[in-house]
Amino acid sequence: MSSFSVHVDSEFESIYNLVPKPEQKVVKPPMYKSRHNPLAPIPFSTNKGLGPNIGKLKNNADPIKFLRKSTPSKRNPLKPIENNFNYPAPKPLKAKVPSKDERPVVGLFTEKNFVTANAIEAILAVPRVPDASAPDYLKKEDFGKVPKYLGEVKQEIEQENEMIDAFVRKQMEAYEDTPELCDAMPEEERIVLIEKLKTKWDAVNKKYQVLCMHTLYEGHQKARKEAFEEEMNGIEADLEKLTSKGPLMISRG
């Protein structure tokens, strides 16, 4: 017994499409109706009662005769402006620049002797009368006397000096009570030390002069040169201390 099956493919026409299908009625939902009255005026509006007239000309006004800039209206008429501003007086102008055709006056000479004229004017001048209202400082009570504040300043300076002397005296007393910590270097020992330092400086200087004759190409040669310079500077500082005037003190132990 054989069985027969029909393969239905969506890409090809199906035999089931030949069977008429019943029409389906579309059921529409009820129409929406607002519960508010559309003809009622808008609440909290500034144009109550003017809604039907918006966009319309009132009182048959001419659309060409509209208000333009700076045109007074019935509600806001233009008020006359009081102009109380006074312009300041014009400043005097500077003299004009002379033109190219104007020539200065040249070649004028005078025979007046200004030295003689000044001398005659000084001789014939009336002496000035001193002003009686000006104070005469020569008749003051404290004229020629030392001011009081200078005496106070001098007294303060003396008090400060006394305090400093007392402090130094106290420090010296405390230093005298302590045992001596230094001894004076003998003169013979100082002379020997100076000769040895000079001999050492000559030896270092000889090495330094030989090194300076060569061109410094490497870093170690430059380092040796700086070491010689530092050593000679130290020897010179020691020689300066040893050759200074006065006794040379050496600390104990």
UniProtKB/TrEMBL annotation:
<feature type="region of interest" description="Disordered">
    <location>
        <begin position="69"/>
        <end position="96"/>
    </location>
</feature>
<keyword id="KW-0966">Cell projection</keyword>
<dbReference type="GO" id="GO:0005516">
    <property type="term" value="F:calmodulin binding"/>
</dbReference>
<protein>
    <recommendedName>
        <fullName>Enkurin domain-containing protein</fullName>
    </recommendedName>
</protein>
<dbReference type="InterPro" id="IPR052102">
    <property type="entry name" value="Enkurin_domain-protein"/>
</dbReference>
<dbReference type="InterPro" id="IPR027012">
    <property type="entry name" value="Enkurin_dom"/>
</dbReference>
<dbReference type="Pfam" id="PF13864">
    <property type="entry name" value="Enkurin"/>
</dbReference>
<keyword id="KW-0206">Cytoskeleton</keyword>
<feature type="domain" description="Enkurin">
    <location>
        <begin position="152"/>
        <end position="250"/>
    </location>
</feature>
<dbReference type="GO" id="GO:0005856">
    <property type="term" value="C:cytoskeleton"/>
</dbReference>
<dbReference type="GO" id="GO:0005929">
    <property type="term" value="C:cilium"/>
</dbReference>
<keyword id="KW-0963">Cytoplasm</keyword>
